[in-house]
Amino acid sequence: MHLTPDGVTTRKLTKQDALPYDLLLLADETIEIIDRYAKDGQTYVLEANSQIIAAYVLQVIDLQRIEIKNIAVDSNYQGQGIGKFMLRDATLKAKEQGYKTILIGTANGAIKQLYLYQKEGFEITSIKKNFFVNNYPAPIFENGILCKHMIMLEKQI
């Protein structure tokens, strides 16, 4: 099935809405960690035919900065530009709320994500050494690479 984001909008979940864990777990390893940032964050979803097919979570850092803590697209819809659409939507939402900088972090093995984020204007600003080793109960591999470090990127908006 081919889906184009043209004319599609995201909606913000309310506190009464259930989190789309099946999607969020594609980008994070545990429900406990998702719950930590989602409870204070803003979760947005993209729906097609009444089904949530993509989501992201924004978390405020301070008055100037906000971070994309999770961004995920249903595996059936990947490779169709939806990730780029969601990244741009998150950036727009952050700008509309008055933030000057948007951040995103990803694992050292997340090659496709690093490519997309930099192509969309994000720049690498720091590396959180051993982040995944210290914060997750089991080793995480992506693209055959042990994910040890969190690469942080940011974009001025």
UniProtKB/TrEMBL annotation:
Any matching Pfam family: Acetyltransf_7
Organism superkingdom: Bacteria
Coiled-coil region: none
Record domain N-acetyltransferase: where: 8-139
CDD domains: NAT_SF
Alphabetical keyword list: Transferase
An example Gene Ontology molecular-function term: acyltransferase activity, transferring groups other than amino-acyl groups
Protein name as it appears in the record: GNAT family N-acetyltransferase
